[in-house]
């Protein structure tokens, strides 16, 4: 199949290239805030909507980079004495970074909009200020898959043979696929099943036997899903919902019997950040009702500010809030190395 221009543009917007190594300098402290954002459409929202207002209101300049959680954690270690001022990564990395002494907790007294933060977005004893819920669920191509799946377990059904692509274990969503597989294999409630990772790996091996593959990057996943080549693909809504709004033949399978995957992405301050006051102003503006409303209207995701209620369209794409389940990342981050080895033995 020849990709359409829209397919190519959508894949390009979602490409997540690794940023080149960079180092802040002491000369940049004071009037410049150094921020490392996540990537793709998530970062673009901050760059387009928040940054012009921040620079106008503070008179400060922004030094912005984009990266992924694993690279940011490595940067925290290697640049401990000269780190950026803020880093945007998910709860999957917060607990490990805080435990290693690489982060400093936020002071809510200095962040007025913290008072409007939903409880689920207050992470790790205030070590992270949650700003968006990067919900992850199963998406399907409506032309190649005429019936909407109602359960993750349907991926293991013979009718789904060679029609499934799952995220790699290096992605947090890949870890959540293991916890969901454990849920299906054991029949236990999610809170218990997420700790039975061996059962999850064994059940994922059965998924591979059913012809499932693992994708290696966002553009590949999006193209397989949008073309219908692989019609059943778990993915993050914040990256794919804007493409759905452009008319792509894709829908989220919500709700799902086993629940879908919530993942809070937050702003995190390195322990030796220099521009603490500017960083706190940046966090405060990120939590404002005005900016948080864009998370709903542009990305169609769950906002951190409790005064921003999901629009009907966002509710349609996310499904009922009670169907969104949140993992114990304090536990999962401790198991990540062992889990990665076990997953690679199956899909490597």
From TrEMBL:
What does the UniProt keyword field contain? Signal
Which residues are the signal sequence here? 1-20
- Source domain of life is Bacteria
Q: Does the keyword Methyltransferase apply?
A: no
UniProt keyword annotation of Signal present: yes
Q: Which residues form a coiled coil?
A: none
What is the name of the protein in this document? ABC transporter substrate-binding protein
> Origin organism of this chain?
Sediminicoccus rosea
Taxonomic lineage per UniProt? Answer: Bacteria, Pseudomonadati, Pseudomonadota, Alphaproteobacteria, Acetobacterales
């Amino acid at each position: 199949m020849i990709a359409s221009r829209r397919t190519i543009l959508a894949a390009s917007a979602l490409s997540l290239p690794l940023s080149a190594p960079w180092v802040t300098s002491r000369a940049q402290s004071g009037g410049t805030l150094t921020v490392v954002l996540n990537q793709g459409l998530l970062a673009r929202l901050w760059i387009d909507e928040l940054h012009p207002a921040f620079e106008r209101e503070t008179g400060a300049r922004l030094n912005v980079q984009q990266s992924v959680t694993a690279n940011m954690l490595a940067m925290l270690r290697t640049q401990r004495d000269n780190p950026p001022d803020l880093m945007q990564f998910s709860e999957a990395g917060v607990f490990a970074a805080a435990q290693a002494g690489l982060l400093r907790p936020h002071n809510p007294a200095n962040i007025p909009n913290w008072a409007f933060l939903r409880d689920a977005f207050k992470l790790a004893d205030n070590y992270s200020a949650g700003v968006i819920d990067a919900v992850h669920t199963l998406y399907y191509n409506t032309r190649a898959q005429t019936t909407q799946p109602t359960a993750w377990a349907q991926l293991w059904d013979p009718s789904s043979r060679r029609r499934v692509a799952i995220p790699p274990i290096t992605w947090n969503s890949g870890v959540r696929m293991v916890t969901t597989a454990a849920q299906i294999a054991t029949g236990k409630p999610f809170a218990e099943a997420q700790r039975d990772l061996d059962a999850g790996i064994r059940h994922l091996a059965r998924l591979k036997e059913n012809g499932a593959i693992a994708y290696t990057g966002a553009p590949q996943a999006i193209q397989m899903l949008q073309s219908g080549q692989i019609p059943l693909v778990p993915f993050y809504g914040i990256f794919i919902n804007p493409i759905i709004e452009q008319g792509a033949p894709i829908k989220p399978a919500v709700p799902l019997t086993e629940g879908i995957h919530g993942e809070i992405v937050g702003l995190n301050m390195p322990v030796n950040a220099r521009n603490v006051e500017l960083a706190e102003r940046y966090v405060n503006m990120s939590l404002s009702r005005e900016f948080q409303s864009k998370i709903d209207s542009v990305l169609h995701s769950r906002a951190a500010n409790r005064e921003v209620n999901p629009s009907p369209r966002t509710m349609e794409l996310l499904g009922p809030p009670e169907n969104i389940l949140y993992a114990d990342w304090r536990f999962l981050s401790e198991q990540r190395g062992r889990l990665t080895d076990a997953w690679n033995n199956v899909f490597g």
